Amino acid sequence: MAEKLQPRSINGELIASSLRFGIVVSRFNSFITDRLLAAAVDSLERAGAANEDVDVVRVPGAFELPLAAKKLAATGRYDALIAIGCILRGETAHYDYVCSETSRGLQLAQMDTGLPVIFCVLTCDTLEQAIDRAGLKGGNKGFEAGLAAIEMAQLSRKLRGATSGTIASKKPSSSRKAGRK
Ligand code: INI
What we know:
Blueprint: E1 21-26, H1 30-46, E2 54-59, H2 65-74, E3 80-88, H3 94-113, E4 117-124, H4 127-133, E5 134-136, E6 139-140, H5 141-163, H6 174-177
Parallel strand pairs: 1-2, 1-3, 3-4
Antiparallel strand pairs: 5-6
Helix pairs in contact: 1-5, 2-3
């Protein structure tokens, strides 16, 4: 009977040692962004990142995150970046412009450079919603962002290998053993 196809699974391990991270963080709403930053650093540290492999760059507000991320990516020094911000809705349309340009800019930064840029920008209606996501009821999005950065950095390394045919494989596939083409 023909063997069932067992697709090869390619994942990024949560191991941060030997990886380099850049964190861009906005000063605006620093009461929140400082807490997100602390949790992101904590997750990198727990996963084995070294002091000298994590750089923190501060910018005035979320709107400035994309340019700083793109400049950090251009250095070629990092395996992943994390962009941290907190945008709170006000009485005018300003919030919408800052939200859309920040998210669009960060996505462009990662797509243009090929470097993972993790989106850790809270977009909340109220300060209470932001507090919940920066260490209270909703956990801490900074910690999640750190894990996402590690996973994407590791995955990117493997996918670079995949395009050159050198990707690590845990076990020989059964189809190869059976001589199937
Ligand atoms: N920047 C933020 O990071 N969060 C906000 O809530 C915010 N609001 O509400 O205005 C904000 N504005 C500043 C903006 O990001 C730029 O720093 C500024 O416009 C200068 O370019």
